[in-house]
Structure formats: C-alpha cells, structure tokens
Specification:
heterodimer, A: about 300 residues, alpha/beta, Metallo-beta-lactamase, Chain A, five-stranded mixed beta sheet, 12 strands, B: about 260 residues, mainly beta, Immunoglobulin-like, nine-stranded mixed beta sheet, three-stranded antiparallel beta sheet, 4 helices
Chain lengths: ~300, ~260
C-alpha cells in the first residue's frame, strides 16, 4: 500500500511538472565561465518535453556564446532566462552543432541575435526542419506549442573563430549527420562534441555514415590528448574530463557495423536481425534496445545490398 | 470458452500442441480490428476461416520507417499450404501480395509500405479449402503509401529498372535460404502525378525446371523489394523471372 501511494504521488507530481511546461533548467558550471544544461538520457516523451539533450553557454568578455538551443521554443526561452540569471551580458552568438531538432528548435527564442552553423547544417534545417518539428509535436506534445523552425542566419567554417573576445576552434566533422560541428573553447579547455559523442545512452543513427563517424571519433580523441583539454561535453549524457564517452560511442558503432555485416552474410532477414539479442556489454545501456531497432532500419539495407551483389 | 469451435476445428485442435490448440478459433478477430469483416468478405469470401497460430506474421510492433516495414510470413508449420494472401486492414491499398509455395516452404520475407497503424495479416489456404489466418498489429507514424519513391528523385533509376541481385545459402543455420533484391520504384499511384508502377509477378524455378514459388505483388510492397525464401535444400541455381504492370520483364539466375 505504501508503495502504491508512493507511485500515485509520483504520478501526481509528474503531471504537475508537465502541466507548467517548465524544463527546470539548471545552468551547471563545468569550467570557468562555461555552463551546461544536461538533459535526460531518454527518448522524447510528453513527460520530459524533449529535454534529452545537452546545451551550453560560454560567458565571453563581451557577450554570451550559446551552443545549441534545445528541442522547443519553450526550452529556448527558459534557457535564455537561465542564462540571464547567471550573467547580464547580451547574447553574442548562437551556434547549432548539427541539423537534428533537439539541437536547433529553440532558435526562435534567439531570433534577435546571430545564429550560426556549418553550411550543410543550414541547408539541412531549411529542408528537413519542419518535418522534424512535426515529429517532435507528435512525441513531446504541448511542450512544443508555438515552436517554429528558425534557420541559422550565418555560416561558419572550420578554423579559428573570435567571438565577443573569446577564441574558439571550430572543427568540421561528419558521420552522425552530414555536418557535425565540434567546438573547442581554448581558454577553458572545454570540448563540445555535439552528437558525435553519446555518454551513457545509445547513439542515434537516422542520418549516420558510420565510417565517417568513426573517423570523427578518432579526431575527437586526438583533441582530448592535447595539452589544453580539460572537459568533454557530449551531445547527450554526462560531462566528463576524459575520453571515456568517445570510446563508448566507438564501441557501440563498431559492434553495430559488425552485427549488420554478419547478419547480412549469414542470410538473415530484417526481422531476424531485429530479434538478435543485445550483447552483455550494452544490455544495461539506456535506450540500447530502442536505438538498436531503429538502427537496423537505417543501416541493415546497405549491409544486405553489399552481400546480395552491390548496386547491380 | 469465449469462442466455441466448430466440429472441424475441434478435430484439428486434437492434433496440435495444447498451447497452439488453445489459440485456435473460428470467429472473433484476435486483433479486434473494425475492418475484419470487410477483409473476410474481400479475400476469404464464403470459405471456412480459422485463426491459426501456425500462420506466423512477424513484424516490428512499432515501425521505424513506414516505407520499409519488414514482414515475415511463416506458415511452414502448417501442412499442405497452396496459397497465402497478405493484407493490411487499414492501408489505402489493402492487398500486399499473394504467394503460392510449390517446391519451397510456405514462408516469405518482404517489406511493405504502411500508411497508418494497421493489422498485417496472412491467410494461408490449405488444400481442403480452409483459410488459416495469422496476423499482428504494426504501429507506425505512417505516410508510407503517399510518399514519393526515392527513385523519383534520382536521374538514373530507369537504367537499373528490374536489375536483380541475389544469393543462396547452402550451409549454416540458414541453409536453403534464398534472398534477392529487385530494383523497382513500386509506385503506388497515390502520389499526385505519379501513376501506379509496380512489379506484378515473380516466379522462382529450380535447375530441374520445377517451380519453387510464384509471387503476385501489389503496390504496397516496398521500393526495391527484397524477398527471403526458404528451399528445403539448396540444390543448384534458381531462376527468378517476372514482370511489372507496364510489361517490363526480367530474368535472373541466382547461383547457389
């Protein structure tokens, strides 16, 4: 009975939390003048409102640099208020790391400031943004109210970027999507890896090129070995001070690739592949079963075609 | 028992393992679909029907991609199957395919386009005229039948139309399996300005000229279809030939 009451209490509190559409964003200091908002390692639901993503900001001498804007207008607005509670400085620039909706649908709350992304990310948001937003309305419900796509207004390229008195190194990679921007904040030693790195949550692959992604992870791990590196911010999951999440993401992608190739070679049908159990190594990884099923749909057709006779 | 069985069903149940026999019923759709009686009229009219667990329809309960929902129909546990019809109650084009297993097992893997969440069913007719029905619900965000094929966006698909790639497995746990892929847009006709254009028939024949299976395909089968068949043993090459609704024919030899 006690347990039942406890469960009821959770249901009620959960509903209150959802009804006020407050993400309860907590700006967590991760280095001097650098803060992150760490999301849940879950899928989009009407309970979490899509707060499953990490976003961040850097308080630079002349303004604030925002890295990714979250999954909705409400998130973007609440993020902006949470930033204002830390610093009175104006927002100087918003950067979108890639074209997935949980990273850019808060852009609307920053429509009055420059929003930058790699050229292919800008194109991708323009082309697919509305379809992505529609999907999040379906999954996150009313948290999405009023959310519209705001395409980035500026293009950035790889190399040094001086913003608001702060020096950033931009690294243009790909593999999670067609364009994945990695940002290294030189003064603090924080490496923002975007969704090339997942920590304690199975990676998502709807637009993945696994070979490119693995090459990107090698570049990222090399960056963590450089003298100035201090903190790694993955796109999803906890912040670390080492390369463990890079190795975890690589292990998952290597296993996934091998599983698709072996399955195709053994003559498995897609339903046989879906029925394969997860290896013990990943059995307790949050979202592993769900992401495996999704990834079979994304990746198995190409593995199968290679075995059946290529593009013939 | 909620659904009393006919004499014929009781006789049949006596021959089956208890768990399967318990699931056998001749009325009351186990998938509780509002469209079942329409489906029964359209596909199984006038013939005796049994919901039979030996007709297995395997598909993900939630489909990641409504354009490519994997479906495996396995009626190989049911002796004497002459024809299997596959349909999806709530699809705008309900009929997916029919197959006639001759020298091959009564099983077929393929992919299908689904427009919305729906039961996907297989009805297997045995030589005595009884339709044995199995099925499963597939949930999907939908849109699979009214989205343009990828071929429509590429310039050179016509050069590859009806190209077949395939392979047979002669050893290992999947010995006797044959898989093949055919390049075809499988346009449903439900996309404005794109007429229906789809494969209609595929025949599989072994080296001795015996037919292994005939498959009649319809619009909902996915673009660039991939099929999985099971021979009782892989014995020599298989010829696959067929045509689409515009009369484009193909013929390919799949080596063991």
């Amino acid at each position: 009975m006690k347990r039942l009451l406890g469960a009821l209490w959770l249901v009620v509190v959960g509903q209150v939390g959802a009804a006020d559409f407050d993400y309860r964003l907590n700006a967590r200091p991760i280095a001097r003048d650098v803060y992150a908002f760490i999301g849940q390692t879950e899928d989009f639901t009407t309970a979490n409102g899509g707060n499953i993503v990490n976003t961040a900001f850097i308080v630079a001498p002349q303004g604030v640099i925002v890295i990714d804007s979250g999954p909705s207008l409400r998130y973007g607005q609440q993020m902006r208020r949470a930033i204002a509670a830390v610093t009175a400085k104006p927002i100087a620039l918003v950067i979108n790391t890639h074209h997935h909706p949980d990273h850019f649908l808060g852009n609307q709350a920053f429509a009055d400031v420059p929003i930058a992304a790699l050229a292919e990310t800008r194109t991708g948001i323009g082309a697919d943004g509305n379809a992505f937003a529609e999907n999040l309305f379906r999954m996150s419900g009313d948290w999405m109210k009023g959310t519209e796509v705001q395409v980035p207004t500026q293009t950035v390229t790889a190399g040094q970027l001086d913003v608001a008195g702060r020096r950033l190194q931009l690294v243009a990679l790909d593999g999670h999507t067609g364009a994945d921007l990695v940002i290294f904040d030189e003064p603090s030693g924080v490496l923002f890896a975007g969704d090339l790195v997942f920590n304690g949550r199975a990676p998502t692959t709807p637009h993945a090129d696994i070979a490119h992604w693995l090459a990107g992870l090698d570049r990222l791990e090399a960056l963590t070995r450089e003298a100035g590196f201090k903190v790694l911010v993955p796109g999803h999951g906890a912040v670390t001070s080492d390369a463990t999440p890079i190795r975890q993401t690589r292990a998952w992608l290597n296993w996934l690739t091998a599983a698709m190739r072996e399955s195709a070679s053994a003559g498995l049908d897609m339903n046989d592949v879906l029925a394969r159990p997860l290896p013990a190594e990943f059995a307790d990884l949050p979202m592993a079963a769900t992401e495996y099923r999704r990834s079979v749909g994304h990746l198995f057709p190409a593995a199968e075609q290679a075995v059946l006779g290529g593009g013939k | 028992m909620k659904y009393p069985l006919t004499i014929a069903a009781i006789a049949l149940a006596a021959l089956m393992p208890p768990a399967e026999a318990a699931a056998l019923r001749d009325s009351g759709d186990p998938l509780a679909s509002a469209r079942w009686s329409e489906m029964q009229k359209a596909f199984l009219a006038g013939a005796p029907v049994l919901f039979d667990p030996r007709v297995k329809v395997i598909a993900p309960s939630t489909a990641e991609n409504p354009m490519q929902v994997p479906v495996t129909v396995d009626a190989s546990g049911l002796p004497g199957v002459v024809e299997v019809v596959v349909f999806a109650d709530f699809n705008p084009i309900v009929q997916v395919l029919r197959f006639f297993p001759e020298g091959a097992q009564a099983s077929l893997g393929f992919r299908v386009k689904l427009q919305q969440s729906t039961p996907v069913r297989a009805a297997a007719r045995t030589a005595d005229g009884v339709w044995h029905v199995g099925g499963t619900w597939v949930n999907t965000v939908g849109g699979g039948c009214t989205a343009p094929s990828a071929a429509g966006a590429s310039k050179d698909w016509q050069q590859h139309l009806n190209e077949v790639s395939g392979r047979q497995w002669s050893e290992g746990p999947n010995a006797g399996r044959l898989r093949l892929r055919i390049v075809h847009p499988m346009d449903t006709g439900l996309v404005a300005g794109t007429p229906a254009f789809f494969l209609e028939e595929i025949n599989f024949t072994d080296a001795a000229g015996q037919r292994l299976m005939r498959v009649q395909t319809y619009e909902p089968v996915s673009e660039n279809p991939v099929f999985t068949l099971n021979r009782n043993l892989a014995d020599g090459p298989v010829e696959a030939n067929g045509r689409d609704n515009n009369g484009n024919a193909f013929k390919a030899r799949i080596a063991p």
